[in-house]
Structure formats: C-alpha cells, structure tokens
Amino acid sequence: MDRVSPLAVLAASNVLLHFQRLHGKSAFSIPQNTIMASGGGFTTFRWLCTIIGLIFYIGDIISDLLLTVQYFRGGHCTWAVLTLVFIVSGSLCIQIFSYAWFEDDKKNENYEDEDKPLSTGHLIGIHVLQIGIFTRYHHLLKRSYKALWLGQTQEDVQLRLFALATDLSMLRLFETFLESVPQLVLQLYIILEYNHRSILQYISMAMSFLNIAWATVDYRRCFRRSLPHVNEMPSRMPTAVYLLYKIFTITPRILSLTIFIMLSTFSPLAMAFIWLVGTIWAHLEKTDFCISPRLEHLYRATVGIILLFTFFNIKGENTKVHMTVYYILTLSQNIAAPIMLFLFKPESEGTDYFLPMLFFIVFSNSMGLGFLALYYSLLHPRGVSRVADEIDGMHQEPLSPPKTTRLDRFLQI
Questions:
Q1: Where along the chain do its domains lie?
Q2: What is d(CA 145, CA 161) in angstroms, rounded to the nearest whole number?
Q3: Which of 46-50, 110-114, 162-166, 395-399 shows the lowest per-residue confidence on average (mean pLDDT)?
Q4: Cβ(152)–Cβ(144) under 8 Å?
Q5: How many CB atoms sit inside 10 A of residue 159's CB?
Q6: Can you name the residues that pair with 300 across neighbouring β-strands?
Q7: Residues 76 and 82: beta-carbon distance below 8 Å
Q8: What is the pTM of this model?
Q9: Nearest 10 degrees: Cα torsion 199, 203, 209, 215
Q10: What would the pLDDT profile of 205-250 be if each residue is shown by its tens digit?
Q11: How many whole angstroms separate alpha carbon 285 and alpha carbon 287?
C-alpha cells in the first residue's frame, strides 16, 4: 500500500474543517486518526494536573483575600484596596471572556442529550457570582473523568477535552497577568519600600509565583495540543527549558518595575504608556479573536497588559523582529532600574537588598535569554504541519492552515 503524504492528509483535514465551519458545525467533531497523531490523549496525569491548577488558583485568591483583611486590620487601607482591586479586575476580566465563549460555543457546537449547554440566564448568574471559571473546571473534570474511566478515546472526544482545557488555561493566563503578576509587584514594593513583612505576604507572593509558572506552561502545552495541525510540546527537557525561559525573563521584569515605582510615584504612568503601546500594537495587528468589537477592544487591552511583562505572538505570524526589539527594550529597562536607583537614591546602596537585586536582574536576564535561544534553536517541537510562526519567525513553512476555530486565534506565548 502506498504511503499517504502528510501534506495531503493535512490538506484533507483543512477541507473538512472549512466545510464544517461553513455548515455551522464544530471543528472539534472531526473523527480522523491523523488529528491524534500530534500527541497523546487526555491522560490521568493531565486530569490530576487540572486539579493541581485549580488548587493553585484557589490558594492564590484565598491568600490575597486574607492579606487584604490583614492590611485593613493593620490600618493600611491603600495597600488593602490595591490588593483587592487586582483580585477583582482579574476576576471580572476572565468572567467576561468566559461568558462570551460559553455563548459562542452554544452557537457553534453540537451537544449530546446528556450534556446540554447552560441557558443564557444560568450563564449570566454564575458569571455575575464570579464562579464561571469554577463551572469550567467542573465541566472539564467531569467530562475528562467520563472519558478516562469509560474508555472514550475517540478523536472528537479527545479534541473537545483539550479545547475545554485550552479555554480554561487561557482564562487562567489572563488572570495570572491581571492579578498574580501585579500582586507580586505590589507586595514586593511594600516589602522593599516600607520594610513591612509578614508570613501572609510571603505566602501570597509564593502562590502568585506558582500561578505564573503553572499558568504559563499549562497554557503553552494545552494550546499546542488542542490544534490538530500543531505538534504537541514534548515534556521533560523542552518543558523545563521553556519554563525557565519564561520565569527568568518575567521575574527580573517584575523586580525592575518595582524599582521604578520606588523611584517615583509617577512610574505607573510610564507603565500605562507601555501598556498603551502594546494595546495599539495589538490594534494595528488587527487581531480578530472576538466576535464582538467591544470584546475585541477588551482583548487588545488585556494583550497590552501581558506585553508589559512578557512577549508573545499575537496572531501566529512572523515576529522574529518584534521579539528581538521587545527583549532589547525590556533588557535595557531592567538594567536601567538598579542604576537609576543608585543614582537618584544613593542611600539604597547601603541597604541589604541593593546588591542582591542588581546581581539577580543581570543574572536572571542573561539566563532567561539563554534559555530562550536554547529552546527555540534546539528544543522547540517541529512538524510538517505547524503554523507559520510557532518559533516566532525564526523559521517558516510554506503551508499554513487557515483559521477555523477560536483556538486558532488564541495568543501564542
């Protein structure tokens, strides 16, 4: 029997995807063996990882709420309000997107009789109560449990599970950069500027850090696995190197922004300007992630916030130049932070944190960029059917699948 060309299989898959989209059917209901070739199914380990992610999320929110209460009781109302604002802003954002995606899925997917979608009134209620993300966790854990323990290994079932996991992981990614990362900046500022320390502060910071690490890697893996034309991100060494690349570039960014706030209370205005630049870039890129124009504006504003702390590919296109410019600018800003602290606050040189901060910023940036180069040059998963810029423009294939689902428009970190 003649061997079928991978490009031919991919072309046939794309035709089926396009046909189903034109007829109002879900792109996740295509039963074809080639879809599962990009990686394994939804395993028990992935199910347990979902529970771990839920625990991290709950732990982060609870620790921040307890810290808010502690600040109020201690008379630090400004700190308490800021801590609470970050919690609320992150929660509101993900509830809005979660509701919109539920409504979108109701229009574009076929449901089994025992798995009917929630009514609009029910959806509004759970999202007003800020429990939309917990509903998504419940749906994913329930459906994946049935698939694992009832032996449902069909391709459409597996792809649907990974689609649910990717929706959830992107919401967690939004929440991480709207809540966990700003919380780290705030708590670090309070510790360094006011020498105010407590066990609950350290617990809150530790939970935020765990959330950043977990959400970043979990989203990357879920995103790659949920698309049939993209090879799954291998575990072990590539995952570890990718995690180190992100952690070693995000952490010094957090520290340098904290130093800028210590230098001047007007520094948040400069950060707002950087956010505006990122938002404008997303607008100029003409992202088409959301159906509603208003929701698209919110998405682009969220993109601007994430770009304040880390780089990602907005549309899956060639971004080698953008990535290079981004890290040159952020590296310059990160190095300038301790230098400016020394010049404008020379008394800081005698503190117990100045030299460790300076060393950490230089060391962490160097390690982060080193792991970035290592990952994208040697460890990044490659395949004949990956999208055009899965390695941020460092290599391109002549064939690029068309966008057919919401997952095809998800940001690529």
A1: 41-226, 232-413
A2: 10
A3: 395-399
A4: no
A5: 27
A6: none
A7: no
A8: 0.81
A9: -170
A10: 999 999 998 888 888 777 666 555 555 555 578 888 988 999 999 9
A11: 6
User: Helices 267-284 & 293-307, crossing angle to 10 degrees?
Assistant: 130
How far CA 381 is from CA of 74, 116, 159, 230, 251, in Å, comes to 51, 37, 19, 9, 25
SS3 string of the chain? CCCCCHHHHHHHHHHHHHHHHHCCCCCCCCCCHHHHHHCCCCCHHHHHHHHHHHHHHHHHHHHHHHHHHHHHHCCCHHHHHHHHHHHHHHHHHHHHHHHHHHHHHHHHCCCCHHHCCCCHHHHHHHHHCCCHHHHHHHHHHHHHHHHHHCCCCCHHHHHHHHHHHHHHHHHHHHHHHHHHHHHHHHHHHHHHHHCCCCHHHHHHHHHHHHHHHHHHHHHHHHHHHHCCCCCCCCCCHHHHHHHHHHHHHHHHHHHHHHHHHHHCCCHHHHHHHHHHHHHHHHHHCCCCCCCCHHHHHHHHHHHHHHHCCCCCECCCCCCHHHHHHHHHHHHHHHHHHHHHHHHHCHHHHHCCCHHHHHHHHHHHHHHHHHHHHHHHHHHCCCCCCCCCCCCCCCCCCCCCCCCCCHHHHCCEC
Do residues 291 and 215 touch, judged by C-beta distance below 8 A? no
pLDDT per residue as tens digits for the range 107-134:
766 555 446 778 889 999 999 999 999 9
Where does residue 252 fall: left (phi above 0), alpha (psi -120 to 50 degrees), or beta otherwise?
alpha
For 313, list phi and psi in degrees, rounded to 5. -90, 115
The amino acid at 317: E
More confidently predicted of 44 and 80: 80
Phi–psi pair at 115, nearest 5 degrees: -130, 55
pLDDT surpasses 70 at 200: yes
CA distance 12 to 17: 9
Structure tokens at 196: 């105010």
